[in-house]
Amino acid sequence: TSASTYDYIVVGGGTSGLVVANRLSELENINVLVIEAGGSVYDNVNVTNTGGYGNAFDTDIDWAYKTEDQEYGGGAPQTLRAGKALGGTSVINGMVYTRAQKSQIDAWETVGNKGWNWETLFPYYKKGEGFQVPSNYSWLEGSGVAYEPADHGYKGPLKVGWSSDQLNDGLAQKLNTTYQNMDAPIPYNKDANGGQMVGYTLYPKTVDSKLNIREDAARAYYYPYKSRNNLHVWLNANVNKLTWKSGDDVTADGVEVTLANGTTSTVKASREVILAAGSLKSPLLLELSGVGNPDVLSKYGIETKVNLPTVGENLQDQMNNGLAFDSKTKYTKAPDYVAYPSVGQVFSNATAVGKQLLANLPKYAAQVASANGNVTKSKDIERFFKIQWDLIFKAHIPVAEILLEPSGYTYDTEYWATVPFARGNVHISSADPTAAASIDPKYFMLDFDLQAQTQAARFIRELFQTEPFASMAGSETSPGLSSVAADADDEGWSSFIKNNYRSNFHPISTAAMMPKEVGGVVDTSLKVYGVSNVRVVDASVMPFQVCGHLQSTIYAVAERAADIIKAEN
Ligand code: FAD
Fold it and tell me: Is the pLDDT of residue 59 over 90?
């Protein structure tokens, strides 16, 4: 194909990329090209079916990235799923729509990102949201569905609401009573999307409530707008790397792309290239283009264009485990109950736990720094860890997410500690853009991460020993008391947890928005340090993990990014 020119090239037509492309193409004099490795999944039932979570896994729309063997986390590699389609990971995710605790977003500013805080991001959560008021909502009427009108946006493209699977028969109230009866009661939270997440709630999803199909980034931000003649999308096309203008300052003039038919060519961007390929791809595209750690690049014969050694570092994910119990009644629908306990509700000895963790932070920071060859500095990591400590022990953010999913004669639970301290990385392992990368989240590298994951399991056991749930449930089927005794210590839980966890699929921070001196890759306008016209807009830029699921925050950041870019033009 012959070279053509666009104002902006967006690499990756996923969750973030389509938001940015949509908003930029609101400007009629601007031409936007989105280049997406996958195809359209508009009619793919593995995508649209609201009850089909997992059906798309390991099909051709799942990248199914493999990690390195997890040295601290059971030894085996883990699978990190990500959507390969127009819409990106939003087409295969669990559709949960929960945001963050206010103080967590404020911490983005504390770490040095002036102007990035809850107050400035909250309007963007709402801007993207097209909240669908539930037709049969009343806490008292049995479904448990409730919401706070002021916490939602009603005019945005992304449909958020409840599917018909939600509507149920009073289980929500019984679970609420059970949470209230626990040793440290978990309060009812009518709406977790207003910045205060602690408590028990029923979350909304990215779902088209009327049609009862999945809502995703493509349905929200692309298909209704595809007739715009300045919005272009190439499908089944892989970007290999950025191409550079000759000259002194580092300026991208486009990308090299391989099309479905195997031909490789370059496409020009006259203004900017926006990397939105996801947290496990965008940093690799920087490395393949010569932006990164010279030690990594030189191994594969790539000339360093910008020495930015923290590209691909700071990777943060969570670990997901589950416990299962028999149910005495049969359930045919799968409502979405979640509890977000804070540290004092999970640890009866929270003060002592906090003290011990605080004492360990310097050691943890040194461990992380040494594991990445001191590319991120121990003193900086220690500061980030102290910010994270303050969030847990002073701001009392949720330390765990507890999901309860009744199905048939079973109560399944899934849970994760929300803010692990481990920091891993993702790097190229070849100059070939199609080669698998080296991905190492370093799950369970630091003791506290296992301690928190263990304590959350004990919390779930306590829940099922509390009335009225205690009488509604039968015995624990996984792990079961014969496998992990009722009074098991941390060691007793360790092998169950490490042999049965999976990635929680929330990898972030691999091109973190932070000041350059402390290891940031992008500045507060999401521009890559040392490059004049390349931004990263996707999960890579989030400096800290959030307690909600990622997508709402990713959509909000992308909405804000689009405004930042527009304001510069
Ligand atoms: P993506 O949406 O992944 O977009 C990246 C895009 O870039 C993809 O379309 C990809 O194909 C494309 N791409 C990659 N490389 C190239 C290349 N070289 N050239 C061209 N295109 C390229 N979050 C929630 O909020 N709620 C949930 O219930 C939830 N459940 C999840 C369940 C699973 C199984 C997974 C994997 C994630 C889940 N998440 C959930 C997380 C959330 O969906 C993701 O964090 C989010 O969608 C990521 O958005 P992104 O824009 O960073 O990347």
Answer: yes
Residue 175: strand, helix, or coil: helix
Q: How does residue 168 score in pLDDT terms, banded at 50, 70 and 90?
A: low
- Global pTM exceeds 0.80: yes
Nearest to 241 by CA among 431, 13, 31: 431
Residue 290 φ/ψ region, left for φ over 0, alpha for ψ in the -120 to 50 degree band, beta for the rest? left
Architecture of domain 45-223+315-567 in this structure: 2-Layer Sandwich (3.30)
Helices (H), 67-203: 102-110, 118-128, 171-181
Pocket of ligand 1 (CB under 6 A): 11-17, 35-38, 81-84, 88-90, 92-96, 238-239, 276-279, 281, 505-506, 538-539, 549-552, 554
User: What is the tens place of the pLDDT at every residue in 230-281?
Assistant: 999 999 999 999 999 998 899 999 999 999 999 999 999 999 999 999 999 9
User: Average pLDDT, stretch 134-151?
Assistant: 74
Task: Locate the domains of the chain by residue range.
Answer: 45-223+315-567
CB 118 within 8 A of CB 106: yes
State both tokens at 86.
Answer: 């127009």
Helix (H) or strand (E) holding 35: strand 32-35
Cis peptide before 479 (omega within 30 of 0): yes
